[in-house]
From TrEMBL:
It comes from the Bacteria. Residues 205-269 form the Signal transduction histidine kinase subgroup 3 dimerisation and phosphoacceptor domain. It comes from Micromonospora endolithica. InterPro entries: HATPase_C_sf, Sensor_HK_TwoCompSys, Sig_transdc_His_kin_sub3_dim/P. Gene3D superfamilies: 1.20.5.1930, Histidine kinase-like ATPase, C-terminal domain (3.30.565.10). This is histidine kinase. CDD domains: HATPase_UhpB-NarQ-NarX-like. Keywords: ATP-binding, Kinase, Membrane, Nucleotide-binding, Phosphoprotein, Transferase, Transmembrane, Transmembrane helix, Two-component regulatory system.
Amino acid sequence: MTSAAVPEHPWLLPGSLTAAPGRIRRTARDWVVDILFLLLSLGWVAAATLDAASPDPSFAAPLPERWMVPLDGAAGLLCCVLLWWRRRWPVALTLATLPLSAVSVAAAVPLLVLYFTVVVHRRTAVALAVTAAGLVTNFVFGLARPDLTMSYWAATAWGVVISLCVLAWGMFVRARRQLIVSLRERAERAETEQRLRVAQARQVERTRIAREMHDVLAHRISLLSLHAGALEFRPDAPPEEVARAAGVIRSSAHSALEDLREVIGVLRAEVPAEAAPDRPQPTLADLPTLLGESRSAGVRVEASDRVTGADRVPAAVGRSAYRIVQEGLTNARKHAAGARVAVELSGGPGEGLRVEVRNRWPVGGAGTDIPGTGTGLVGVAERVSLAGGHLEYGRDDAGDFRLAAWLPWPA
């Protein structure tokens, strides 16, 4: 159905109109219905005409003159022919043939079909207006074609009942078609929304993976850079120290490649992100391993753990604390090489978890040439915000760079 045809045919089923306004494209169902209506109307015209021409009409109201019988039959045939265009101009054809309903019996059935088409395919106000006009001609019909078997008012009442029955049937059909179209649109909209939700979930999951990989890769690559820099500036180091640094470089590079291969595989996958199993995420219990890796790389790390009930910390809170410390150590290696780093954790259930990473502000050329995008702290701030906590970072009054966060820890 085209947009140009929608206002004119609001209740037609999809596919009953062509792209050009006013042109009909009948479906197989439309062909069957139209042919049945045409045969029914032709049968009525033949029966009514033959009965009116018989010496003793049984169901057709008698005509005042016998020569009017062929005219009545011709009027019925004309209405049958007009049924072929009832889907295109239902209101115009109904109004044009409405005067025949005041005098013709043979045209009664095709006129009812036209009237039914108006009720189904037009607004209620239009259908009621056509119904009112038809009721007026019904009163005239009782005078022009009086019935010999019943009184005027009884015959007129039957005409009113038939008109109201056709009106109720047509409105039921229209409401049913409207319901079907509404359900179909709702199903299509739900399917579209489901696809959007899947796409959004996939994008959110990929963003989460990218944030996690930024934290992990930045940490490992900074270790690589630190050990490689030590080997570059100390070519005369003892073989044991060179071997240890080379082992750390090899291990860190292997882990970085594994992480990178995993995230690329997930991001390339077409299946929903939730279908892929999550890799084990670090928690607060993995913090000593993280500190040990930094110490093995030559970073002077002092840790203070005053957390009460650390074994009961929620996994999400512990993971956020781990990422905060990881980002703080990575930034210290990148921007304040050789500086002492202090890591402090405190808090407990009900009072929250406080995490603080502090190092001296880099002076002059301190720091390494490890490239960075500056998005690490932005990602940490987002993570803390989503967890319901708050984050502070920057230079304090003592001249140190301070990264501090508070995370909620329910009692």
